[in-house]
Amino acid sequence: MATQQALLDSIKEQTILSEISALSGWDALTGMPKDAGHFRADVDAYLAEKTFQVATGPQRQQLLEALSADKSALDDFGQLVLAKAQKDFDVTGKIPEKDYIDFQRTLSEAQDYWAQAREANDYTIFQPYVEKIIAYLKQFIPLWQTDEATPYDVLLNQYEPGLSVAKLDAVFDELKTGIMALRHRLETLGTEPDGTFLSRQVSKDKQREYALAASQRLGYDMNKGRLDDTIHPFMEALNRDDARITTRWDEHNFQMAVLGIFHEAGHGLFEQNVASKYDAVRAVMPISMSIHESQSLFNEVMVGRSKAFWQAEYPKMQAVFAPTFDDISFETFYNGWIKTEATLIRTEADPLTYPLHIIIRYEIEKAIFNDNVPVAELPQLWRDKYQEYLGLTVPDDLTGILQDIHWAGGSFGYFPSYALGHLYAAQFMATMQKTLDFEQIYASGDYTPIFEWRKQHIWQHGGAVDPGDILMAATGEGLNPQYWLTVMNDLYATAYQLPK
Amino acid sequence: MATQQALLDSIKEQTILSEISALSGWDALTGMPKDAGHFRADVDAYLAEKTFQVATGPQRQQLLEALSADKSALDDFGQLVLAKAQKDFDVTGKIPEKDYIDFQRTLSEAQDYWAQAREANDYTIFQPYVEKIIAYLKQFIPLWQTDEATPYDVLLNQYEPGLSVAKLDAVFDELKTGIMALRHRLETLGTEPDGTFLSRQVSKDKQREYALAASQRLGYDMNKGRLDDTIHPFMEALNRDDARITTRWDEHNFQMAVLGIFHEAGHGLFEQNVASKYDAVRAVMPISMSIHESQSLFNEVMVGRSKAFWQAEYPKMQAVFAPTFDDISFETFYNGWIKTEATLIRTEADPLTYPLHIIIRYEIEKAIFNDNVPVAELPQLWRDKYQEYLGLTVPDDLTGILQDIHWAGGSFGYFPSYALGHLYAAQFMATMQKTLDFEQIYASGDYTPIFEWRKQHIWQHGGAVDPGDILMAATGEGLNPQYWLTVMNDLYATAYQLPK
């Protein structure tokens, strides 16, 4: 019987399977014994197969068809869930099963060859797999396409509902111009801060103590989370009451773990505060990447680079790290803390240069799918753009086109979410400043008003509301990159003592 | 089609499900966020249901029936697997599904009421659930019974194939007499060692460093394992390449974690060294408890209480803990290390008194199932036996009959495995001493010969060979408690300076 309950039961099974996969994934990256990978591959393949069956099998298909044809059995919640489940189904269900399986196998191989190519520092080893993946995606795009304008629009929409090349072209153009202008002013008119104190030794235990305490002041709940060590930090949410964060440590670069933990705790905050009514349907209502990233970046940049925040927090950090920074004044600390410098590696970039890394990738992906640029030409394209936008000469593939795993995973159209996250964070911040006095809140030590605003306007909705709608409802405006450019101009004008 | 491959595929699915359950169980006891229990309960219920379907559902039933009727499709391995799968099926498959589900629910409730009874220190809260569980088991026993002599024999056989009340009565009688005689000699003729140094402070990090290094010298492979903190220590093996151990710490009782880690690493050694041919059929070939315990206890007692071992290891431990024990001579250390004292709590017992705790539980369980002793009389029975065998007055239920969770879990017939583990360990040791020079091996620092013997004679067989057969093949003899009594007499005669 095609009832709402039958749909919810089916989705609950999918949610439980995704929860198990999340546990397995977290474990594999935080301390699973080194030799156990081959056994774990069997477990993960089993889970993927079961999930595929539940999410796209005949039972789900019949439910979707029957309930779409006659919605009288569904209340509002049921209709929302049906729409989300249909969307979830379309991504894989519209592809012939054989092609889907071949594609997954190609992705799995591609990741191995990406790793090999990195080891050999030679893009040509990876190139045939990029070509294969792109060929598959070009074959799938017409199956996925509904009313999007260009092939690349179809991919963008899978990660960010409602996003288009037309919108991004305009936004990224504004952003690129603004960033390059500010960087030019800093170079020609600014005084570069001294950041040497940032490499003073701070033990892992002390870094952990401070960063977790501050993250908890921002609302991250350790009764619904934990912090583990890993190589490439991430947050993994099994459910609302189990949103685990991870970090890496460098005793001579405490900024990395402190901001990294703020960042992941921002993701964790989101997951911990999704409304409980979505518990059993999480699997078909993933939170969109851009809005998720807006919350990690809110923690990392809007809070973690804010002068008012550090005015309150620096003495607390000094006390935990004492006596290491007793001789560093607040001004010296803060200016060094937000020092900006172009890097070849995206994940090491500071907030000001980060969007340029994304714009480069966006322009290359657009060229691949909309202009059919050959894959062999991508390394040169990459080098040219890094020279032009960041003024950096890319010396090799490892620090160039081989740095990200995303393409090996088939994730074309994903990178823009990272930049949107920055822009959303700043736009939320600008709205919050109309009703919240951040200086007073930070000085009080009780950050609850910030927590409550974010929970009410953003987190509680989980993946139920599209990011563009959340932004509009919360800020009364569509995406506007000027908020972010204003934040950046303010931050760096102070730290680099630009003339007013 | 009822082929060998179809059977193996079905069992592989069961094995993967059990691997996932093991990961979930390990995670829940080592650091899952405090608030996540209710979500995890859903996951575990789902896994239990899937496992039940795979292990006892129509497909498995048809395979078992068809392959049992015509074994021509099976090679030797297939026949072994069929027999094990049939045995696995019989434990649950012979019970009507409704009764099985009701029983599981009763067990789940019983564990809550056991915890409540412990909190109130009042057995009568738990008593109705013990009665229910016993009633269920008495109802199931005739369904399980094949040729066992008494009802309690049926339960014993589920944990230890081939075990009987007749055998255990004889063995435990010999054991009880021997232990009580030795304890009497120690009390009247011995000099009690000074163990005060055992409470000197040793940091958790140093305890961990030493205990893991020694465990690795004994062969525990950290590339196939890890060590985590927990409340009630255990080893959890997801598979041969992922056998995780856990411990608890007390900075003023380093002996607890050192011997605890040796113990769990002994379990881990077993799992890490099962032959790879059993990888996919683990779920129907669990290693029997007694033989498993013999290997943890071999590490903890036969190695971890041995004078020759500590002659080689004490300087290594002193170096890691330096300077804390620089003033403690080897003789003082060793005698204090094996000091014996009766305790009310089984899990805190030393090797000499431990079997008496088991014998008490054995006698009570036998009285319940074979003599129908009323459940209301058990606390008095418990108190009488602790007085008689250990000379201890039990002050309350918490330190008496409510101390173990086993009955709340329906595990009647399980306790004897612990005592058998002690006896097996000593019997293996006696055989090994015929060909291995332990003093020379320990002095050399290379413990490989001990590792190799255990792997060849015990570990590689996993759960494929019954414990009695492993014992017979390895030692050329059936179970003989005199080996264990000899070890104990030797250990304590030295430490307590008994007259020769």
Automatic annotation (TrEMBL), chains A, B:
EC number(s) stated in the UniProt entry for this protein: 3.4.17.19
Active site: 264 (proton donor/acceptor)
Keyword match Zinc: yes
Keywords annotated in UniProt: Carboxypeptidase, Hydrolase, Metal-binding, Metalloprotease, Protease, Zinc
Gene3D superfamilies with a match to the protein in the record: 1.10.1370.30
Cofactor: Zn(2+)
Cofactor note: Binds 1 zinc ion per subunit.
Swiss-Prot/TrEMBL GO biological process terms: proteolysis
GO MF terms held by the record: metal ion binding; metallocarboxypeptidase activity
CDD domains membership: M32_Taq (cd06460)
Entry-linked InterPro entries: Peptidase_M32_Taq
Catalytic activity as recorded in UniProt: Release of a C-terminal amino acid with broad specificity, except for -Pro
Binding site for Zn(2+): 263, 267, 293
Superkingdom of source: Bacteria
Principal EC category: hydrolase
Family: Belongs to the peptidase M32 family.
Stated role: Broad specificity carboxypetidase that releases amino acids sequentially from the C-terminus, including neutral, aromatic, polar and basic residues.
Protein name: Metal-dependent carboxypeptidase
Protein's organism: Leuconostoc lactis
High-level lineage: Bacteria, Bacillati, Bacillota, Bacilli, Lactobacillales
